[in-house]
Write the structure tokens for this entry.
Amino acid sequence: MKYSHSRVECYISCPYKYKLRYVDKLKAIPDYTADNALICGNTIHQGAETNLEDALSFYYSNYPVISDKHVEEIMKFEYLIPKIHGILDGVNVYRKEFNISTSRFIGIVDLIVKNDDGTVDVFDYKYSNNYEKYMESPQLHLYKYFLEAIGFKVRKLGFIFIPKISIKQKNTESTYEFRRRLNEELKNSKTKIAEVKYDANKVIEYLDNIIKIMEDEKFEKNPTNYCSWCDYEKYCLKGEDYMLLPSNKRREINKVEKRVLWIYGAPFSGKTTFANEFPDPLMLNTDGNIKFVDAPFIPIKDEVTITGRITNRKFAWEVYKEAISELEKKQNDFKTIIVDLLEDTYEQCRLYMYDKLGIEHESDDSFRAWDKVRTEFLSTLKRLMNLDYENIILISHVDTSKDITKKAGDKITKIAPNLNEKISNKVAGMVDIVARTIAEDKYILSFKKSEVIFGGGRLTMKSDSIPLEYEELVRVYEEANKGKKAADKVVEPKEEKTRRRSKKSEEIVKDENTQIKENIQEDKYQDNKEFKEESKEVTPEENIEQYSQEVGENNELKDESDESQENEKPRRRRRKAE
């Protein structure tokens, strides 16, 4: 296995987290908050490498729907990215996004600047105000060591810190007033370039840590105050696994016939009637709207019984969970399970948790209650989504009461399911398709997705809409399956093997700490000697260019290069808000 700076840093922070991420390859459902550190960091990198338009396109592509908070993040990018390009004006840029790939290290150098004397300066972008943390990082020291091993002469190292504006809108501020204040903060911010002095001990520590990783068999947990910022917190400390996606293993698409849909639309747009067309359906109904459908149903509502003078109440949420428990037994012949309406079950979950916690609203228990309600709802919903039935259908009403305010002040109506935005994003990650029913001249099922329309899915669809008919949806799945099967037949190019290192350089990781420092210089000498022997009459510049072409583009490295920003520990702990 090759190691990167971010992988080793992950192991140092918590060996168990390293195991989950890189050994078990478990991935969490994406965090769709507008200021997601990884997405925003990669957006800045994309803008620095190409241009503002490409950066905004990348940012938009990570979100199913755009809110006012996303617009405010975009305002930051529109100010900061041109500032980065202004810094680079007049600079002799040798390469942006230069890949390093050796037998012991992989990484991406954000920026290499060429000097008149043939040396280069190496820089890395950081979208952060936490200067102290990065100045102690071994990242740039590793870049220098391994760049010089392939022929570069590195003169200077440095970080380019892009200021991160994290102000929040006050309760007394309008959107216009807040954005005006945000613009003032951006104008007063400054991009900082900080030089880093090379320290060979940082390389030694990196090589020592590789040995520790290779020898570690337990990967023990390392609980700290920062566990609340970890993707695996609830799985690691609480045993909850609803937020984990399946292992990254290929499966035969023709054997997968389960359809998981989330349908939303206005009242009387044909949602329930459409769901009724699916084979052998069972409806978990919350609103009593079953007069014009013939599917069997379970009413999800409070059950009240009276014994003498005692009134006993079973909450609707308890009825819902009992129905799921019965369906898990698979002692029935239903093929389709329908939840109508999903937002009602969320409200029922809230009332159940209020009673359990002895509160009247989430705010009565600070922000702890919000998290408990959300966890109860999502963990139960996952049980439903994992049921072994051919079709799982979620139905919601549409919500058009929210507007998005553009920078110019214009308002655009957002079209989304009538459910809390954070919950909606989680649910969208559990289904194949999010579609909207529209009743105009005829009933249609729309898959259209835009900045203001919540929709789309994992399937590749030829059209943005189809007639609202079961047979038409089946064709969509069949076409998607055919496309997937054809794609699986494409032969992926084999990864070229990197040049073998000398035996002496490979033994450096096995030496004692007292000798590693001495061997680093010898190791560099051997690498440079091999490099010169192989290049023969080729100039160093041409050889470096050839190495760069052989390595090629590596998208996986790009994700890892900013992983440290995803795990950045903020100075002030954020509140867990709904």
User: Anything to note?
Assistant: The two ends are 40 Å apart (CA to CA). The chain has a mean pLDDT of 82. Residues 92 and 114 are 6 Å apart (CA to CA).
